[in-house]
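Q: Predict the assembly, please.
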Amino acid sequence: MYHVIENTKCECGHQNPLATILCESCGKPLQDSEGVQDTPLEMKYDGVARRSQKDNPGPLDRVWNFFSSVKIAVYLIIITLLTSILGTIYPQENTFINLDPSVYYKETYGTLGNIYYLLGLSHTYESWWFITLMLMIGTSLIVCSLDRVLPLYRALSKQQIRKHMSFLMRQKVAYSGPLQSEGIPADPIGWIKKSGGFLRKKGYKVHSDKDGTALLAEKNRFSRWGPYINHIGLILFLGAVLMRGIPGWHMDQYVGFPEGQPVKVPETPYYLLNEKFTVEYYEDNPGVPRIYETQAILYTCESQCDDPLKEPVLREVHRQNIIVNKPLSYKGLLAYQFDFKQTPMLLSVNPSLRNKQTGETYGSFELSMFKPQTRYQAGAYTLALKGYFPDFDMDDKGQPITKSKDPNTPAFIFLIQGPGLDANGEVYMYFPKQLDKERYRQDELNGVIASKLELTAGSMENVKISGFTSYLNLRKDRAIPFIWVGAAISMIGLIMGFYWQHRRIWIRIDDGVLTLGGHTNKNWFGLRKECADVLRKTGIDVDPKSLDSGGKES
Amino acid sequence: VTDILVSISGASGSFLLVAFLLYCLGFLLFVIAITGKRWSGNDSEAHAKAWGRAAYFVSVAGFICHLLFFFTRWYASGHIPTSNMYEFMTFLAMMIVLASIVLFLIYRTLVIGAFALPVGIIILAYASVFPKDITPLIPALQSYWLKIHVTTAASGEAFFAVGFAGGLMYLLRTMDYKNASKPARKEQRWLEFTLFVLLVVIGFVGTIFSFSGAGYKAVYENTIITVDEETGQQNTRVEETLYVLPPIFSPHNGVLKEMTPFLGRETALMEAPSWMKGNQSGRKLNTVIWSLLAGGVLYGLLRLAVRRPLGAVLQPMLGTMDPEDLDEIAYRSIAIGYPVFTLGALIFAMIWAHEAWGRFWGWDPKEVWALITWLFYAAYLHLRLSRGWMGKKSAWLAVIGFLVVMFTLIGVNLVIAGLHSYAGV
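A: Predicted assembly structure:
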């Protein structure tokens, strides 16, 4: 590919960069061949040469040129659009928690589902090619904008007032006619002044040239920057989305919180306590839930945080009721109401020691099912915890074991010392649940001591039970502020670009002949009306529609 | 208090009916204002002006009634009526009428009333097919973002609807029915197809109303066995399907429980194919077939009556319009709607999603389709920068774009289930 050395100097004397379409100064078309003189002028970016239209492009220039093309941008948009459709055919993997996709798609949707999975469409939006597409769109946004905005800025900030005749007559809105008032040739300078006044009233900034026989009226130039501001917002938005990949920027966990039991919030120093969970249904519509609410307290762990044997030292930092649409929010940590389950679970009992012979009761202490203490005091008696089995069972050899960490069948082995007991203490086995007590025959196991003492919680008031487990979605997303800022900038750009139009009207008077050209980037209807209004006010009666020249030089 | 609320919600329904009738009347007046020019002799300008003014005021009166419906229903239910398909579609229709009025006020062209208003009327008729009950709000919908997101999104979509009408007008105006070359014939057929699709929607509403008005009913039962993954236990559930249209297709493996005989038949003609396993898919297939049949019959009757392509019949209505103005009306409407749509369907949706579900974007089918709509119109707006894409091509894009919008609103709920499934069809 070679270039003929072009003469880019315009007849008005301005030296234009290569590939300029319209002279940057007077607007004379520079690249027209004879045949196309009756088509409207290409006014995009005011006919300036873009960066991508450089001579002898190097490899980097070629990449730049590729991404600077609007055609490529449209292709990228359409490819993204079509591939996005593919991702909605079957549910995506991320809609399920715990799922083996290699089995699920085949079982649920048959062969087609399996092909869908094998093609990687079950995670379309996380796939490398989709992310590559996003990156290419981002690049295109940056390059397209830079390629155009700088030359356009240059061109708009140094506009000539008296434009070339063929520039004016080949505008989409154009008019040419004798300048007369009541049949007598009018004073050109006065006319320009008068019409300038009308245009000012319509919000135009009016500039006239030295002789006072040509004017340029311009308004809402800022709207030309709308698309570029929109693109800046979109670039920021896309960037923020990609930044979520940085470790520590993004957390997304689902954790169950049983009532009354603080649970550690992963990846943070916090513990969250679900004090009480409530679910209510509509009175007249019992199938429809009205509200889910978790009364939550957030603690920060001061010490003994990672020691599983010791109770962590917690300090309350925040307290909030979480409902759907109102997440707990504390220093960037967000906790959303996600789900709940009815899970009756024993948390603690407050038993007291009763002397079976006298009926006297001693003390009352809180016995936790999760973190029991090693020693309790009840009156004159000392209870030392020798063993705790939250989910009690016996193995083959008759030895006590625990099946899990959940207090389903809690069993405690105490060594009790005190009046009327062996000096070395006596062993006492305690099942807090009445059902377990009978099933494992607690009294028989305890033997002699069972006839002297009894550990019992008595009424239900002394029992703490968790009724619900509330599932919260715990999130941290440091990209969020950038997302909102990007969206806001984008929106400002869209509004600037779409609700205002950059309008320009050029008028020149030569030897009693008035020539008018008008350009807008949108809403030609409105521009024609304004031009016709101005002409009418100065005594030239034209139908707005007749100004639509179609760009023909007549 | 309950009595008052009931009577208010009753009154609310009447306002909507009045609005519907006024829209229909307004549409007729617009048509008379345009077509009557020819039989009003010399005074055609005055005729168009007088009838056009009447048409405009009747449509605005309809819009006011529609607003009254909206606010009384809001008062009666205690929440903004945009939470189920019936409420959303009536709202969308209201916004389409508003967008038509806005564009009419900018361009003062009667054809906008004659072509954009019926789009609103069809959507409103379509809305009336859905259950009208006021439904209580589930927790996920209890947010003021419901009001903001849904109303803004619908407003943007309403301008796309007017863009669709503009594109359709451009195509009708510029179609050369004398040209019998292959590409021209192809284009004429596609335009006819677009009009046919509109008739299918009308046919759908018509059949539903005829049969439910006559009290038609058929009931099928399906026994569904599911196996609990943890326990391996089998659960049996009986699912009932209610047909309001005579079953041409019965649900796959459905057992007939009750059926009003239709044309002497007491069973369905066919059974839905086995691969249609989705929720109520047999019934949906049946409805689609009925709509196509009704639309086909309607189209056939109209063609028999006029003996010309329907597009050729509509063309003279646009006789004096400048095609470039029509192109601009379509473009302008989309340009007005685009920022509104971006704000409502994407940005506000993201803010709400962030508050409700803890993520601003989750690739839920409805979200993806909103993005697809947005990308489609982004492509449209960029293509208009290129030479050769104004006019005909861009008119086709405006028409297709609105189909994408309608698929996002209705098709996604019909075909793909997702988080937005509570919007129910």
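Chain A touches chain B through 58 residues (CB under 8 Å). Residues 128-157 of chain A form the longest helix (30 residues).
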